[in-house]
Amino acid sequence: MKHSSLWFDQKEITMLGSKRIIIAPLHWGLGHATRCVPIIQQLLVQKNKVAIASDGQALEFLKTEFPELTHFELPGYNIHYSTQSMAVNMMLQAPKIARAVINENRAIKKLAKKWRADIIISDNRLGCKTDFTENIFITHQIRIPARSNFVSSIASKIHQYIITKYDQCWIPDYEGEQALAGKLSQVKLPIPQVYLGPLSRMIDYPMDMVYDYTAILSGPEPQRSYLENILVKLFNQREDLSLCIVRGTNDKPILDTKGHISVYNLTNTTDLNKIIQQSDHIICRSGYTSIMDLVSLNKGATLIPTPGQYEQEYLGQRLDGKFGFRTIAQKRLMQSSIQEKLELLLSFS
Question: How far apart are CA 41 and CA 11, in angstroms?
Answer without folding.
Answer: 15
